[in-house]
């Protein structure tokens, strides 16, 4: 039986991340999945932009929630999201599995209406995170999606980490697959883990025109930044439904954004 067609793929360029890994700083109460932050994470938290206009948030939401960076079946301008609880199962190196669990806990705490947690076994999960060595990445992609699609992905993207999802006819996401390399350092791993897990939940389109989002291939975070919390909280507000068009989202977005601002401000202890 052929592998189902993934709805999108997203990559991270390792060289750019490694070049920035020597930065150091200290930030209290970080949004980070580990007990001890990599220096590159704390540096970014210290200088993170946390104040955005409505138009800046709305612009980023529409650019990331619609379309796809790599789509095998053409562009889709509909909202895609999970409408059921999200359960994540990670396979691979034990220390990286523990980091994935902390990433998932962090996401759950910061996205108000998203029911996400780790699963105890693979059968109970609808998000599978495969943790592999860098040298095994292409072979793993081939196992997931078949040789022909793996070649197409490699030729188009040359990925270092990757995620995809499958949706039903109502544009509800039913399953996501995330593939992460484990041997390129803590910062690279966390940056990939946050981006791939978050994009596997629906905001699938990378954009080079929004400088504050981790969904920009020129931006590396390693933590769940405030701007992307706005995007995920809008997407998972109950008034935003899978299958909505751009216009349908615009009709409810003013009320949604008002409530999302209150939540993001509260969970991050932002000053008015």
Structural class: alpha/beta
SSE ordering: HHHEHEEHHEEHHH
**Count of the domains:** 1
Number of helices: 9
Shape, principal axes of CA atoms: globular
Average pLDDT number: 82
Order of neighbouring strands in the sheet with most strands: 2-1-3-5-4
The total count of strands amounts to 5
What attributes characterize this protein structure?
11% strand; five-stranded mixed β-sheet; disordered N terminus; alpha/beta; 40% helix; globular; 272 residues; 9 helices
Describe this structure as you would to a colleague.
The protein has helices at residues 14-18, 39-47, 54-65, 94-110, 137-145, 147-157, 186-199, 226-235, 246-268, and strands spanning 86-91, 116-118, 127-132, 162-167, 173-181. With 272 residues, it is of the alpha/beta class. It has one domain (14-268). The chain has a five-stranded mixed beta sheet with strand order 2-1-3-5-4, with helices on both faces. Strand 4 (162-167) and strand 5 form a beta hairpin. Helix 5 crosses helix 6 (147-157). The chain is globular, with a radius of gyration of 17 Å. It starts with 13 loop residues before the first helix and ends with a helix.
